[in-house]
Amino acid sequence: MQAIKLGQIVRVRSRQYLVEEVTHPPLPDGDTLVRLSCVEDDAQGQQLEVFWEREIDAKILGGANWETILHRGFDDPRYFSAYLHTLRWNCVTSTNPKLFQAPYRAGIEVKTYQLEPLRKALEMPRVSLFIADDVGLGKTIEAGLILREMLIRQKIRRVVISCPPSVVRQWQEEMESRFGLIFQVFDREFVAAKRRERGYGVNPWTTHTRFIISHALLRDESYAASLRDWLGDLSPSPGAMLILDEAHNAAPASSARYALDSQLTKSVRELAPKFEHKLFLSATPHNGHSNSFAALLEMLDPQRFCRGVPVKSQKILDRVMVRRLKRDLRELGDRDFPERQVIPLRVSGLPSDAPELVLAQLLQEYRQLREESLKETSKTKQTAAMLVIICLQKRLLSSIEAFSRTLKVHRQTIEKQASKVVTASKFPLLQESTSSDDDRAELPELEIESCLLYTS
């Protein structure tokens, strides 16, 4: 078999690739490890590692020679001109940060305002960007455009997306359907499958280059440790990108004077320096506490921000953050986000014994009793109890059936706890509101509310 060299164009598995790295075997009878980058339009930049001698259809593609031109003849000038302009455009866009390719390779209708994060990211030597657009403006699309452009320009090789458990599948589907990017969901089932296939000692992170992992698993040291091993000792790891969705969950929990690190905060703080490029996404980046906000920005860009030092310069913040609200776009003439108007609908003529009125009155009386009984308790306990009451009111406004199901779950929980005769002091977590580090974050909503209602 012909020896393969760096920079050659080869055909492997029915696709054309560029040879980026060749690792020769240490032993004479070993196999050559070749790292390839796809050059076809529908998968440009996609990485592939193969053992060259083991591939069935592997073939080195030779360049055109003069004999081929002699027999075939020259191309039509119009076709050659179009080909030349295409090559020139591709070469320019690979180096010019003001020219984009990703919007033309995405299966979506890109809005003008969604290109601003892409423009700002390409102007950075290393991407450290906080996309804090309002809900519904398309932060996922903006992150996908940046990711796709970075892959096309071959600036990144490995990508890790961390998001809440409820949107893991959504991220996977959107990356595949809108940008043609295949991601592997890193969960317990995936780890167990790889250990069955390759042995218990295998690092599952080494089996792919693009992963999606939930916040719940990212803060688990058994998964974070293997991720650090995969990224290596070099900080930052060249060509590695971290996309952190709902980044405000990683901000330290705020108290009166100090920002207290949660387990997710510790995990992100240890992992972030190992990624060369970082994208944080959140519609609510600031929780009202300057210490917590500064600590979050320090994880994104430790060169500009420091924990404990309030961010006072808007100019410095604008260099790493993109923040637009819907009202800002309406002022610019964007008609895709009309102003929401709340119009009350008054229903009159109902009998005084109507179920809706009776239930609403009973729930209001229950709320007053709860407020009276919680006057001497902590503020956290009062807030948790009131949140439960608000959820019950929402269920009642939705439908009587929804309210009945929620109330049934509450009653079952109360009876279950009462049968065990367990005091609430043995479960301090149940007296507080759920945070991003609380295991109850993965429980059904109704069960959480039931626990809160009983223990409050």
Outline the structure in words.
The chain is α/β, with parallel strands linked by helices and 456 residues long. It folds into three domains: 9-61; 89-331, Rossmann fold; 355-455, no CATH class. It has 16 helices and 14 strands. The protein has helices at residues 66-72, 77-93, 116-122, 139-152, 168-179, 188-198, 215-218, 221-231, 263-271, 290-300, 314-318, 326-331, 355-373, 379-398, 400-420, 445-455; strands spanning 9-12, 15-23, 33-38, 47-51, 59-61, 128-131, 158-163, 184-185, 210-214, 237-244, 253-254, 259-260, 275-281, 321-322. The protein has a seven-stranded parallel beta sheet. Strands 4-3-2-1-5 form a five-stranded antiparallel beta sheet, with no helix packed on it. Strand 1 (9-12) and strand 2 form a beta hairpin. Helix 14 (379-398) crosses helix 15 (400-420). The longest helix has 21 residues, at 400-420. It is elongated, with a radius of gyration of 28 Å. The chain starts with 8 loop residues before the first strand and ends with a helix.
Ends apart, CA distance between termini: 74 Å
CATH class of the largest domain: Alpha Beta
Q: CATH H-level name of the largest domain... which superfamily? A: Tandem AAA-ATPase domain
How many distinct beta strands? 14
Number of helices: 16
The domain tally reads 3
Global Rg? 28 Å
Q: What about the largest sheet?
A: 7 strands, parallel
Order of helices and strands: EEEEEHHHEHEHEHEHHEEEHEHHEHHHHH
SS class = alpha/beta
In percent terms, what proportion of residues is strand?
5-15%
- Unreliable sequence segments: 422-446, 448-456
Shape: elongated
CATH architecture group name of the largest domain: 3-Layer(aba) Sandwich
Spatial strand sequence of the major β-sheet: 8-9-7-10-13-6-14
